Amino acid sequence: MKGEIKMVISSIDKLARDKSIEILRKKFRSLAKRIIEGKRPVLVMPKRILSNTIYDEKNKLLLLGPEMQRRSFLDVNEARKFMQTLLMASIIYEALANNEYPTIRDLYYRGKHTIIYRDLHGRTHHENTWDEQRESDSVIRDLEVYLGVLREEMLILSKEKGKVVGNLVIKSGDDTIDLSKMGHGAYSIEPTPDLIEFKDVDAEYVLVVEKDAVFQQLHRHGFWKKQKAILITSAGQPDRATRRFVRRLNEELKLPIYILADADPYGWYIYSVFKIGSITLSYESERLATPSAKFIGVTMTDVFGDEIIRKKIKDLKSIKTISSSTLRKLPRKKPYLTEQERRNYIIKAKPKDIERAIELIGYDVAKACLDNKELIKNKKLKDKIKKKEGLAGYPWFRTPEWIRELCIFFKTLSKLEIEAMASKGLKFLADKYIPEKISVGDWID
Questions:
Q1: Which terms does the UniProt entry file under GO BP (predicted)?
Q2: Which is the catalytic residue, given 55, 101, 108, 109?
């Protein structure tokens, strides 16, 4: 027919599609067999809860623990979840069989409808399959755990967020793309990064920048050309595709990964997600996290140096697991900012910043490092902090280097954004600060 558009499916897409279809068939054939044999329809899968998330200290990864859950159709408390899981599985299977590429939003709408049923007393009920997208998203994550397959491997798409530029040639579908020829723009990291093939690379490391605005400035400055780097932005909290892409660059191309984020609890957590993984996706940390990633800045010692904390080391005896002598042995640090520049650029931390910092490092560090005069002056802040008493913090932040960083944060109640370094001049950020920190190994592991 004239004007008919023929669908072109790449060979790598077809392999992923066929593999996912086979896994779905195998899993749900076994469920159908149970029903035919007159057994209770039950789904058994790992529990995706905080208490079943463990930190593997040796491999530096957040992993899903051994606890399992049983989701039974004949249990009144689990029937709805059971229904949702099977409904989502059938929608995904149909999309795979029909050569479609649904988004997570599509799956939400395709499955949302009202079920009308009668109870044992003959009363009519109306119930939605799900009400909000966060419900259907949670069901997709359950299926990932149950099937052992990432949603990206099932060709389920999400909104593109991360961007990359550099001397890297990739193959996406049947197209070869040179990421050094993006003009002033950049390549948007696609939602299915495992379907990308790395064809050629000429780079010495990967720099991941939290802020898109800083990424654009570095790109236009030609940072990646001068420094032989792959430049990436997560544009804030990283999505799954960006994390997986970064992991592949490290794992397959053996490129070291450096993270540049704000000097605040949210920037530090973004680094943590890239390096260790996240609690929500702990079941996929082995494919999404990059344990060897390094945090190059912005650090509190870049802003203040370490003199401010050295005067207080003798008062830090109450911090568990770390001795004051260990902190004293850390290399001395001089600040990149003068006192005048600090006055121009630092931002006063808000109570929510302080609370988040306590969650990262633990209450004992906050108590030892916070200025008592500030707490006496601010009773509301003191009460908020008191509510965090007993929090142990994340174990991967309980290192001498991070304790020093967070202690300076609590001592000064200050934070600083990457843009402050650029305010000293883009040339300073691109040609001195970043290259110097990498060359001398001034990072936190």
A1: DNA replication; DNA topological change
A2: 109
